[in-house]
## 1
Amino acid sequence: MSFSASVIDQRIRQALQGDSALANSWKRSLERYQIDPGLSTPPRVYSRGQLKDYQTPLEDLMHTAREGMNQLSRQVRDAGYVVLLTDPQGVTVDFVNNEAHDKELRHAGLYVGACWSEEVEGTCAVGVCSIERAPITVHHDEHFRSPNTTLTCSSAPVFGPGGDLLAVLDASALYSPHDKRSQHLVLQMVSQTARMVEDAYFLRQHRHHCVLYLSESRALLDVQVSLLMALDESGRVMAANSRARQCLGAHPDHPLAQALTCMGADISHVLGLDMPALVTQAHRAKGDAFEVRHVASARRYFAKLTHPTQPRVTRVLADHAQVASVGTDLQALHVLAGTDPLMMSNVLKAGRVMNKGISVLLHGETGTGKEMFAQAMHQCSARKDQAFVALNCAAIPESLIESELFGYADGAFTGARTKGVKGKIQQADGGTLFLDEIGDMPLALQTRLLRVLAEGEVMPLGAEVSAKVDVQVICASHRKLLSMVDEGHFRQDLYFRLSGIVIELPALRERQDLGALIEQVLHAQTRAQSRVFIPTITPEACDLLKHYAWPGNIRELKNVLRTAVALCERNLIEPRHLPRELQCGAGVPLLPPRLASGEPLASCAALSSQTASSMPESALPEKSAQLLAHLRQERWNVSEVARQLGVSRSTIYRRMAREGISAPI
Ligand SMILES: Nc1ncnc2c1ncn2[C@@H]1O[C@H](COP(=O)(O)OP(=O)(O)OP(=O)(O)O)[C@@H](O)[C@H]1O
């Protein structure tokens, strides 16, 4: 060694006084790496070809970090600093040059390709930072090798979403004031930029997951990322940024210390709310922050939950849901849920009760997709290879519901077919029975249905022995069944039997993924019309679609886009391709107009404008006349009329029954 031992001792003592991390580094440099501090060899710089091997694994991070590095460079460049990004081994994979000092910087090794590991350079900021995994400034002769003793270098670690060291960010200058305190601000800037890069990388890596943002300040939550956690569908913490790990990680003294180790814990152990509760809170907050409490410290945080924005995310979420606690592949349900928080929580609920013999009651406005949800539940269940049998209680006359549902035995009726017929309940044996508009089930039949559900046996009309059945029952209603129970129109015991779990489907206007849903339906309608190119919706038309109240919900959306796709020219959907009630824009009611039954009827305006000239039945109330005209025009094809008006068939049947309209024999 060319340096005298006393000089080294003196420098170690100096370093020891201020900072144990530096002192330890000096010891390692001397004892482990046996570096000669006086040797004036040039810095080790990797060739372009060699450097590629270090850069390739970090390409994604370098891409994300670039903006942060440029920003940091703009702040410190004039003071003579250069900004470097190194890999965890200290190899400089990227840098923002300072042209004013280009030659000297290159000479000093403050350049891309240079290696700043402790093993090569002895004590230096990048080297110590990557070992200590903490920000540090190494100033002037705190550096181990004499050629570096004029430099001042401030470094901060950049951690990956799993807590692993990804890189080190550094700002270094060739010349600086003697007092180390002059570097305090630079170290703060470097640390802050490193956190920013880390968070940007975290969000990029977890763009396919739900991300929970937490801050102790409600006001700062939107402008300053604080604590971040990526959650899977079941609420397991998949990753957390450094601050979340520090603030929410295990408190060794806490009785729940094991479970509270942030990574891999269920979010309910960390914040006392499970995933459905969190999703519900976020939904209620409508985009604003909501309060949560850290279980271990009882500290209050303000939270926001964001959802993946890309459609293919649902696929990824479905994959995660497979390993989640529900242990079921819920893909068909996820496709319907899109990225709407309430729908996503519905999927979780459905997953939890699946295959457990629990009855499901779906509640939602017409056209919100209740039947599709029921079908998707069936597809996701263990019964998927058995029958899915649907009966719309509002669509068939009361007198026929009984035989439809229970079937009849051979020769049960005079004049009836001699051979008996299996009812829907028996047809669904082993599979799923979907009873749509259950609120329209006559009271007498409710009692019989209850017996089937309670005893698992069905007695066909005219039969003498009952038959065993095993069905998963899913019911749906747009009505508030509990109010019907209060009014005596629906049996309370049946209600409790059917509502093992109640799932509320949001109206289209409430869905937070409306834009994505519009796109999805547009694609489907384009395909259905065998068109090659998917039309573009102009911003004006898009605005109208997004601000309309959609009383007929997804069914109405499908109808509107089907027509728009057919009408549009130059593959452009403009406002003129949309129905008049949408074009009215400001005139659109916030809540849908409702019929006397409390049922929304989508296209009242369209109906009156289209049929005003063909209404001879002046004796009938106006709306009935319109409906009658429509039915006649479509030769009593109820499905077609329902499609045109954007309502369900059951709505039309109910209206017909109420107004005494019946099809000619
Ligand atoms: N998530 C979805 N994506 C695309 N289309 C959907 C979705 N959900 C429902 N639809 C479509 O919307 C229409 C209405 O759906 P569905 O019949 O399931 O609603 P519903 O709530 O049962 O209606 P109703 O109670 O009035 O009979 C159907 O054409 C269905 O294909």
## 2
Amino acid sequence: MTNTDGAKPPQGPPAPDNESSTGGAGGKTHPAEGRMPTPHPHPTTGLHAHLIVTHPTFHLDITLTAAPGEVVALLGPNGAGKTTALRGLAGLTPLTAGHLRLDGTDLDRTPPESRPVGVVFQDYLLFPHLTALDNIAFGPRCQGATKAEARRQATEWLARMGLSDHATAKPRSLSGGQAQRVALARALATRPRLLLLDEPLAALDARTRLEVRSQLRRHLADFEAVAVLVTHDPLDAMVLADRLVVIEQGQVVQEGTPSDIARHPRTDYIAQLVGLNLYKGRSEGHTVHLEAGPDITTTEDLTGEAFVAFPPSAVTLYRDRPTGSSARNLWRCEVAGLETHGDQIRADLTGELPLAADLTTVAAAELDLHPGAEIWATVKATQTHAYPA
Ligand SMILES: Nc1ncnc2c1ncn2[C@@H]1O[C@H](COP(=O)(O)OP(=O)(O)OP(=O)(O)O)[C@@H](O)[C@H]1O
């Protein structure tokens, strides 16, 4: 998160406005599994936000709704406005216009510290002088629980997070993964109606990230209020969220379930995230005439503006123009770059149609691929996927 406007993050978990909220137990399925997201929850439940924030050189204008129990990921490239949106939701950045309603209450009239909102920051922001237990007990204590009751709840949270052995540890002696779990417990212990997670896994190393991601996934599945996660990592978004809201340049460019978005990307940024070649054109029957480039033959029969996509693995490369290939799509290209991609080589091709192609190391060597090499690329119509734009 880029802290650009100088506002300080909250120094502790804010208190909820009532005690009726429920956190913890529930028979929910896992986020991103089974449960159909509800993009337009009932007006008196869940989140209804129209966030308008104007900075001198940036304008955010997004509508965001989420039903209780739903996990929404705000996904977007650097500078898209994710942090600004999250800070708007948390009350750390004032809205220039719009509205922010949670469970039927106007939050924009509630001071940030009184909002039933829990925030988990990328860099944890635990109280350094308090033990793990007291960090978690802080929220319930602020909400009026007795010291003993607050500590009892905190003890339960530590157990749930698998951190009972670290109750007396100070944040500086916790690992990144442990600190992030304490931060999550601290936010959840206040039973927030809106949980905000700002790049919660970004500061962790790859292995810890895997572990914390799967734990977070479990806790979010049990969480019965609205959770909004900000990330630029598509994997975090796909694994943790029921619904993705993709933001580019302060606007929502696409929203839907992770599988929907992965199958039908509508911008270059999303196509790149999910690893697809994506083009826009005008479809007539089985042919999509690209706006800038050749025609692509597809199996779908469409008329009008259309996207056509195919994965890099669907591309076959030839050094010489293939004669016996049954592929309907054949383009002359030039290798612009090569990079290792898992156990494959990804070739970045320019020419008639810019595209990415994946091939094995052996195939790359046999084709003598190198930047500047001229190459023929084919894609079968059955490997492409066309859908209305
Ligand atoms: N207080 C501010 N004053 C002026 N411009 C700002 C302010 N806060 C953010 N911006 C600008 O708003 C734009 C969006 O920033 P924001 O941090 O919300 O993006 P982001 O999607 O979270 O990016 P990142 O992934 O890099 O954190 C950027 O161009 C940023 O410079």
